[in-house]
Amino acid sequence: MRIMIINENNKLNKLLVSNLEELNYQCDVVTTVKDAIFYIKIRKYQLIIDYKLIDTISNEVLKNLKINNEIYSIDKLMDIENNYKSIIDDILILLESKKIKIFKYKDLVIDQENDLIIYKDSNIRVNKLLCKLLTFLIKNKNKTFSKDELANKLFDDETTVSSAIINTVVYQIRDKIEKKFNISIIETVNYTSYKLVY
Hints:
By secondary structure, this protein is an alpha/beta fold. It is built from 7 helices and 11 strands. It is about 45% helix and about 20% strand.
C-alpha cells in the first residue's frame, strides 16, 4: 500500500515514515504541492497525508484529488512532537476503514484492488480468482485444503466456480507466478488437495 506525505516538516516526515514502514506501508515524501501533483498523476495512492500545504492547490485540482484520493490533514497548530502517536493512530484507523485489499507475505504482495502480484521489484497482472485463492492459502499457510473445500470456502458467491476451476487457478499460479519469479508457492497433496509451501 502506497502513501504520500506532503510536508515541509522533516522531523514529522521521519516519524511518520519510520512508523508506517514498520507496518509495511510504502511512503513517498514530497515537500511541495507541485511535486505532489506530479506523483499523484503517475502513481496511485491509498492515502495522502498533508500538513496544510494542500491549501495552496487550486480548487479544481483539490476537487480531483478528493475524488481519487483520501486526504488526511494535520493541523498546523498541533504540537507534532507530543502528538505524532495520535496522528499515526488516526491514520491507521482511516486506512483500516478504507479496507484496502493489499496483502503482504514475505517478499510477495497481493494487490487485490489492482489484480497484481508483486515479488520484490517485479509484478504481474492476474485475475481476481487467483488473488483470492493465493491470499486464502497464505492466511491458512499451515493447512491443506481439497479442491472442493477451496471452491466452497472462497467462492460461495460465484455459482460457476467448481473444483475444476480451482485446478485452473492453481495452474495459473504455477505458470504465471512460480515460473516467472522462480519460486515455489503451492504443493499438491494426494492429487486432490493443495497447501502453501512458500
